[in-house]
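Quick illustration, no need to memorize.
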Amino acid sequence: MAGTILVVDDDLFFRQLATDLLSQRGHRVVAVENATLALEEVSRATFDLVLTDVVMPGVDGFALTSRLRERDPEQEVILVSHRTDVQGSEVALRLGVADCLTKPIEEADLLLAVDRAMERAQLRHERSRLQDENLEFARFHNLQQRCLELLSHPDLEWLQERVIADLGSVCDAQSAALWVVDDRGDLGLRSYRGLLDKQFLPEKMSPEGPLSLRLREALPWLARDERSTVLYVPLVAAGEVMGLAQLSDPLTGDFRAEHTRDAKVLADFAAVGVKNGRKLLALQRLGLRDRDTAAYNLSYFTDYASKEIYKARRYGRTFSLLTFSIDNLPLVRVRLGASEAKKAVRGIIKALSKIIRDSDVIAKASDQEFYLLLPETDFFGAMMFVRRAVAAVRDEPEVQDVEQRLPLALVGGASTFPKDGEDFDELVHRCRRRMDERRASLQRRLMLDGLPFWDEVDLLLGTPNSPRLPTDDRAEPSRRGKVADVLFDELQVEIARELVRDPGSRGLLYVGGPEIRADLPLAVGLEQAPPDLSSRIYLLGRRVDLESHPALTPVFLEGDERVARHEFILWLSESASYALIQRRGRGATWGFHTSDTAVVDGLISKLQAEYDLQPY
C-alpha cells in the first residue's frame, strides 16, 4: 500500500538508494540530509513513515524521533544505523520505534519493515476516520434530536429559551441573545444568557433597512465587536423572518465552519417552531374567549400573566396591569334590561380592543370587571392608556346608545411590575386601590368630566364665598383659597430639580401664565438639563423673550385673556401628580391645588383639547 515517507540520512548514497527503492513500490518519498530539515518538512506536511539514520551531525536520530513523537505520538519511525546495538536498545524501546535496521540493509528487509509500518499507519488512519465518522454521526444525531424537540414543543416561552441554549451549545458559544418578531413586525429581545450586558442589547430592531438583506439571505454571518467574533443567525421560515440570534464568546476562540453549518440547520427548524408556536397561540386565544364579549377568560389571563411575570423577573422588564369596572352595571340591567347591559359590556370590550396592541391581552374577570395586560409598558404609559380607553369607550356607538338613557360609570386603575408588586394578586390589589381613589376623586364627586377646561378652572377656583370642596378619606387632598405669591415660582424650582435628578422619568408638564419669559424659574432650572429628558414640558402664554430652549416647548397664545388672568402648573408623571391654578388679584392670590391624579389627568386632557395640543 502506497504512502508518504520521509527519509533522513546524511549519507547521500543511502538517501538515493532508499528513494529509488521505495518510489518503485509506489510511495511518495521526500529525502533530506539532517534532522533540522526533517522537522521543517514535517511542519509543512504529514508523513506516514519517517526512515531516519541514528548517527547524524547535530541532532541525531534518537532526538529526532523524540521530537517527532512530541508532535504526533503515533508517528511511525524506522531507525537505520551502522551500529548493531541500536536494535533492542533501551532508547529505541523507550521511543517506541517501529523497527531498527542495520546497515548495510538488505532490500527485502527494508521493504518488509516499510510494509509493516505502512500497514500499521493505514490501520491507524482507518481507525481515526471511523472515530471521526462516529463523532460526526453522534454530532448529527444530537443536532437532529435538538431540531425535533424544537418542532415538538409549540410553547413560545419554552422555545425562546431553548433556541439560544441549543445554538450556544452546538456553536460552543458562552453568550447568546435572541430577538423574535412581534405582532408589528419588529424584532424584540426575548431571551439572553451568558456574559452579555442587557443595557448593550437593543430592545427592538427593525428587520428592514441595513439588516433586511442579511435576514432575507437566511444565512449566518460573522461580525467583529470589541471583544470577539460574533455570529449572527437569522431564523427564517418559508421566506418569513421569525427571529435573529446573536452568539459570542466562543470557547474555541473563534467560530469554525461546522459551527456556522450546524447553526443554520438548527435555526431553520427553530424558525418553523416559532412560526407554529405563534399560530398555536393564536388558535388558543380564539378558543379561550368569552362568547358574548370575545374577551379572554380569567384562567387564560392568569396563566398569561404568570408567564409575563416570569419574563419580567428573568430579563428585568416591566409591564402594566389595568382593571376596568362598570360600577353601575347592575343598575343598567335593572332599568334598561339584560340585553342593554350586554350591549354596554360588548361595546366597552370592542372599544378597548380597537386601541390595544396585538401583544396586549384583555380578559373578562366578572360581568362588570375586566383585566388588561400591557407588556413592555411603564406606569406612565398605563395612565395614558386609561385616558385613551375612557375616550374610546365614549366614542363607541353601542356605548353611546346605552348612555343616552343611562350614563355608564366606568372606572379604571393601573399598576406596574415591579413598581407596584411582584405577583398577580399584589398588582390586582393595587389596581383596585387606585380605582377606589378615582371613585372618591373630586373629578367624580363634582362630575367634572363634561366641562371644558376653563369652565372647570372657574369651578375649581370658585370665590371666597363658594362652599368648601367635598372631601373623602380615600381621595388625595384638594384645597382652594389664598395661596402665597411665591408658590408658583417655588414649585417651578422644585419640579426643575426633580426633572434633572431623574431625567429618565416619563411625564407631562404644562406651565401657563401671562408671559413666556427666559427668566421663568423652570426655564432657568432646566438650562443644565440633559438633552434626552423623557418628560415633555410645555410653556403656555404670550411670547416675550423666550426664543428656544433645549428642554422646553413654548406654545404662544397671543391675546387669550383667560391665560393672561391665570397661572397654572399641571404635572403628571410616573411618580407625581399635581395641579396648581391661581388667579392674582389686588389683595391676594386665590388658588386651587391638588394631588388628585384623576383631577390632574382630566385638566391636562381638557387643556390639550382646548388648545389642540398633541396628546402624549
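The longest helix spans residues 107-152.
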